[in-house]
Amino acid sequence: MTKTEPKSGDPNADLVARVRRQFEALHGRSPALVAVAPGRVNVIGEHVDYNGGWVLPAAIDRCLVMAVAPRDDDRVRLATADFDGLLEFSARDLGPGSTKDWGRYVRGVMAGLARAGHNVPGFDACVASTIPVGGGLSSSAALEATTGLAGLALCGAEMERFRLAKLCQQAEHDYAGVPCGIMDQAAVLCCEAGHLLLLDCEAETYQQTAFRAEGWSLLIINSGVAHELASGEYALRRSACEQAARRLRVPSLRHVGPDALAGALALPGLTDEMRRCVRHVVTENDRTSRCVTALQRGDIAAAGQLLNASHASLRDDYRVSCEELDFIAATAQRDPSVAGCRMTGGGFGGSCVALVRQEGADDVIRRIGDAFAAKFGPRPAAFVTTAAPGARLIAV
Ligand code: GLA
């Protein structure tokens, strides 16, 4: 597996240094390897991955770092750099367990690797992250990806990235109880710097799409409302979509094109809720395709309008937004330095993504922050990100 050197000026170099220092302080030896995985932001194509649709995420500049060294026994000992206790379990006992600690993501990926024939030995690990937990930016997929890369390296094995993403997705289903699609794990593992990942979730193929937006950046604004996808709403939306597809006699809602939408909505036998889901998924797939074309042409205004329409659909039809996200999106959409803004990720809290003019980005952050603080109290955390590289091992 190729290892890259952390570049000087890399915003995550400090984080890597901190994790290494903490690893040495805790375990009295140096880590043998360090895995880094970014969070992700989805530009457009929301709640369509589990409907076989098309999504357009990018890896972000915030990441999770895991320093690892093998042990002579089968113990796995996990710590965070802000040392809040040690999680410990056996590498030979990888059941989901009943606790909700973050070790379940590690066990889930290790169990998947074991099923694939890679029995990860015992190891010590120390983890730190700049991806806000509950921010809708895939901190759990980043933890899964670092575990996957580090686990494979400890076994001296390799695995194709998309296959590893599916293994991580399975861990999320079985060990965290979230019936998620493939977008987050694929984005974290397969994204490349400077590119958006156009992922066809049914064909399981992807294309790196250059992010051509001279003078424009992606801005992430975190509502601070921690989303809890396991709370059931996510699973309910997914099941409504699947039932609608059965009633429409298609394998998934991906197979309803925009021209067939009116006919599908007119069919008796769909509930109102199913109709709203169908309308969201069909129009969102169409918006994603049009957004890719707009970005390829460098037509930021058109891409921005599609982001705005995506938010409206998620708010009104799919009903996965919340007051705070709606407020951020509406405030950003009125801002002269913003081309478009929408909630990103699973929703019910988490973050918004905006296409923002690079030059005015600090002022946009201040204006949205002031307006949000006046209404809700705290200022939302916000940052501009590049389309960052995907997960990797780095030289130690
Ligand atoms: C969460 C899930 C993804 C995807 C998004 C919504 O992030 O993990 O698989 O369904 O929600 O687009």
Which short descriptors sum up this protein?
396 residues; alpha+beta; Ribosomal Protein S5, domain 2; Alpha-Beta Plaits; 7-stranded mixed β-sheet; 14 strands; globular; binds alpha-D-galactopyranose
- How many domains, in number, for the residues? 2
Radius of gyration: 21 Å
What is the CATH domain class of the largest domain?
Answer: Alpha Beta
What string, H for helix and E for strand, traces the elements in order?
A: EHEEEEEHEHHHEEEHHHHHEEHEE
Structural class label: alpha+beta
Tally of DSSP helical segments = 11
Q: Report the biggest beta sheet as strand number plus sense, adding barrel if it closes.
A: 7 strands, mixed
Strand order of the largest sheet: 1-14-2-4-7-5-6
The global form is globular
Number of strands: 14
Provide the CATH architecture of the largest domain.
2-Layer Sandwich
Q: Which regions contain 5 or more consecutive residues with pLDDT less than 50? A: 4-8
- Share of helix among residues? 40-55%
Q: Give the termini distance in whole angstroms.
A: 14 Å
Determine the CATH topology of the largest domain.
Answer: Ribosomal Protein S5, domain 2
Approximate strand percentage: 15-25%
Mean model confidence by pLDDT: 94
- Hetero ligands: alpha-D-galactopyranose
Describe this protein's structure.
There is one protein chain. 41% of the residues lie in helices and 22% in strands. By secondary structure, the protein is α+β, with helices and mostly antiparallel strands. The chain has 2 domains: 3-208 and 389-395, 2-Layer Sandwich (Ribosomal Protein S5, domain 2), CATH 3.30.230.10; 211-385, GHMP kinase, C-terminal domain (Alpha-Beta Plaits, 2-Layer Sandwich). The strands form 3 sheets. The protein has a 7-stranded mixed sheet with strand order 1-14-2-4-7-5-6, sandwiched between helices. Strands 11-12-10-13 form a 4-stranded antiparallel sheet. Strands 3-8-9 form a 3-stranded antiparallel sheet, sandwiched between helices. Helix 2 (103-115) crosses helix 3 (139-155). The longest helix is centred in the C-terminal third of the chain and has 26 residues, at 272-297. It is globular. It starts with a strand and ends with a strand. The relative contact order is 0.17. The structure holds alpha-D-galactopyranose. Alpha-D-galactopyranose is lined by residues 42, 46-47, 49-50, 180-181, 183-184, 345-346.
